[in-house]
Amino acid sequence: MTEVIGVGIATIDVIHEVAAYPEDPVVVDAEVSRRKCGERTGCLGGRCRWLGMSTDPTKDSEAAFIHEDLSHFGVDCSLASVKEGSMPISHILSSRETGSRTIVHSRNLAELSYKAFVKQLAQYHEATQNDTNKPVWVHFEGRNVVATEQMMLHVRTKMTTAKISVEIEALRNGWDSVVKLIAQADYVFLSKEYIREKLGFPNAQQFFEAVEAKKWGSDLTNCAIAFICPWGDEGVYYLDVLGSTEHHVPATRLDKAVETIGAGDAFIGASLAGFSRGIEPMQVVLKTACEVASGKCLKQGFELVTDDLSKWKQILQGETRFAGTNAA
């Protein structure tokens, strides 16, 4: 079975639920306050490892909470690089009326360095007895662009059979530097906000047309199999690079969202669970990922409805298929 190594940060989400957003400045009592840590593929039957920065979980209760929560969903934290500081925290104001949220993020922990990445990856190779043929998928959160490019190049050089995916979301990262990450990736997850606000395209289709027209040169699609653009309640748009075809998978319409926090993580996690197992066609994986994200919006946290979870696992593990795989 292919293992997924997720390279990025793990954050504690402190969620304050309010009945509705106040229209004027006012003190509002939270209906409920709770904390959680997001995760990606573990609860869908994937074998996952997290490679990122962490404080010492034996000394820091916040790090211990993150490690325990990830482990609960089947994510191995043994590759975490331990450093002094404090774990990243996001304080989230969540509206029960609309399901939308406002996020304030803070961190006092260094970004994962290239040197630390190589060291932890060597630990992984040692644990797997240096089996270079062991199937592995490395997913990068495109944060610290310069170091991430070095990491991706290292994987391309030292783990030649590995699949690589990257997530582009942070608006602080310029397109000229992001292109270098995309050029090393097999699968690219690009957010709606980045396409609209950073690149100035009103929709995914115009971005895909620019990619196919080689607006940024041919290096952008050196390795790419697909560009995947989640688009909120519209579902997901994707470009099948090898087939030169654009597709749209609509999302399930929800009467009312309970919690949208983590829906993007749920979508990417489900996608990686399917892609890493070689499930085809691509639309099967992405349709299921949309269903998982919608299911997450109907629940607090990642404890999804058991019957739905069982169905999604069967699809993403290749045990069943469903009808209607023609592109919309």
From TrEMBL:
Q: Which residues form the Carbohydrate kinase PfkB domain?
A: 59-301
- Domain of life, per UniProt, equals Eukaryota
Fetch the Pfam families from UniProt.
PfkB
Q: What is this protein called?
A: Carbohydrate kinase PfkB domain-containing protein
* Native organism: Phytophthora megakarya
